[in-house]
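sorry for the late reply, my laptop died twice this morning and i had to redo everyting from scratch. anyway the thing you sent over, i finally got around to it. pasting the sequence first so we're on the same page, its 155 residues, then the predicted structure underneath. double check i copied it right bc i was rushing
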Amino acid sequence: MTFKPSRPLLCTVLICAGLASCGPTGQQVTEVPLAGDDPVPDSTLWDLFQNVDDPNVTLEVNRYLWTAALEVLDFMPVEASDPFSGVIVMGYGTPPGGSRAYRATVYVQDPALDARSLNLALSSRSGPASPDTVRAVEDAILTHARMLRIRDQNL
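ok and here's the structure:
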């Protein structure tokens, strides 16, 4: 009876041999830290599985943009929303006076009330909506958010 190595075993041996040949070549490499560099703590593969996130860290979302997006797009059903990350996913809905159904994903990514804080993806059943339509909806949301803020300041 003779030993005949299997293909996966042979591939494993070749990969290990190839990785072993990638070791140090005998040349000494020293790293010179630059001014202001903080030393990077050593980490291992097991650090990926530890929960090191700070539970006290929260993301801030502009409440006026959030409310305005829900009110302007109220003809669409809300499929999912997460006020902590600023994402609203809406299903297909037909705007009043329109004939084409749209769906939207809104991402409010900053506490500031400006256009950079709002990200909108709008599509119809036949594909992405035109950039002019997306811009018009974004403008409507931003205008409504500004009106909400002005109304709150007058109270």
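Strands lie at 78-82, 87-93, 102-108, 118-124, 127-128.
thats about all i looked at so far, will dig more tmrw
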